[in-house]
Each structure stands twice: as structure tokens, then as C-alpha cells.
């Protein structure tokens, strides 16, 4: 199985008798639904419902493990410390914090955690939290897999405090609960869900030629609808206004990344459709 060691990750351990209760009241993930052998996405939101910090959460014995990016970890730890007050919770930054990804085969590595995001996309991908040998895969291999699955990551595909959970498909990949009690930003994302107002979504971009760099605007008749995120040759991820994209697709108007004509596809596992296409199909 291809294996990849990630060197840009950090881990916060959340332990103590109130650990689950504290996180359940703060983050988007339903802690009660988190299985022992899986890792799920999650976020701590701003009061306005945008992603303040993002992470992957899993169980580590009696504790909970938050895997996040190195550039977020200190600020996230400080924020959690502010929220815990007098709760029976201990927060600790684990060092070293080895994180590995294993993908490509059905055989599950011992001691691994199923990555719920890829599982929803029908792909067997596992995370390990210990050092491994013979890690022969590259970040490029992992990026190709993420693009095919429509899995966006912070700093590559979106910026913190600039995206709602719906924008990055957290409402569909197990990272956003609408059934548990209140948490920071919950009112905003629940309103988006019930009113169906989410219009920015992750799409898979296919170019007729190699695509320009990350950050290049996607345009319709000169008007931007989003920007390229992770790019791999002729394939990329982007977060776009799917209502505008749907109108262009229905009218056969060209969509461009820079000057490269592209096709946009919503990840098949999501069940989503471009609004104009869905309206046309139901007519």
C-alpha cells in the first residue's frame, strides 16, 4: 500500500472527564458519533459560522486527538484553553507528532484509523499516528487522490475565516452535525442548511491544457466565480459559486481558468447538482 509521512501536521490531546462534553459544545463534529477506529473532519467556527480552525478528530484511548496543521496549532490550543475555564480537561501539545497516510488498497494497516472523508467517497484511506518505514508515496500522489475525491484542505484550497463548512462539504463528509446541541456558529450553519442557501461548493476542475497556478480565478464572461486550489497538471480543486457555474453550463458558456477552458464537476459521492442543471432535469 502506498504510504506517505506528513511533516506539516501537529496534534493536540484533549483528555479528562469533561473532554468529550467540552468539545461537543464547541466544535462542528458530533463527538458521540465518532467511532473508535475512525478519524472525522471538524472545525471550530467563528460566531458568524465561518471556519476559524479546522482539524481531524479521533479517539486515543480515553482522550480525543485533534490533528491540525502546524500553522494553526498554537492559536487553536490557546483558543481551547480559553474555552475550557474550570472544566476537568487537560490540553497538551504532543511532540513529536508523526502522522502518516496509507492508501490505495483494501487491506487495512494495524492500528490505523479510517479517514471518514475518503470513505464517503468510496476510497480506502487510513491515517496512522506513529512513525512508519518505507513511506514511498509523495504529496503529489496524495493530492491526486484528494482531487479525484473532491477533498479540500486549508491553505491549499481555502483560507481560514473565509469559508463556511458547507463550502468545503463538511455537511456531507461527517464533519458537521445538525442533530446535536448548540456549538459556536451553529445557528448560522443550521440556517444555511434548512434554507438551502449554500451556493459555494468544492468542484473538480478538468482543463483542456495544463492549468495555471493555485489562486488563478475561474471566470465566466470575465466574471469570477471562484479560484483554483490544489492543482495537478490538468486537474484541480476549486470552491465556486455553483449557481453561476450551473447557469453557464446550461447555456454552454465557456468557463476559464486564466485562459484555459475547463469543465467543472461536482464530486459524485455528494449527490449534489448544479442548480440550473437540476432545474432543467426536473422540468
From TrEMBL:
InterPro entries: CAF17_C, TrmE/GcvT-like, YgfZ/GCV_T_CS, YgfZ/GcvT. The keyword rRNA-binding does not apply. Residues 199-270 form the CAF17 C-terminal domain. The keyword Transit peptide applies. It holds the Pfam family Beta-barrel_CAF17_C. Keywords: Methyltransferase, Transferase, Transit peptide. One of its GO terms (molecular function) is methyltransferase activity. GO terms for biological process: iron-sulfur cluster assembly; methylation. SUPFAM superfamilies: Folate-binding domain (SSF103025). It comes from the Bacteria. Coiled coil: none annotated. NCBIfam families: ygfZ_signature. This is Putative aminomethyltransferase protein. It comes from Sinorhizobium fredii (strain USDA 257).
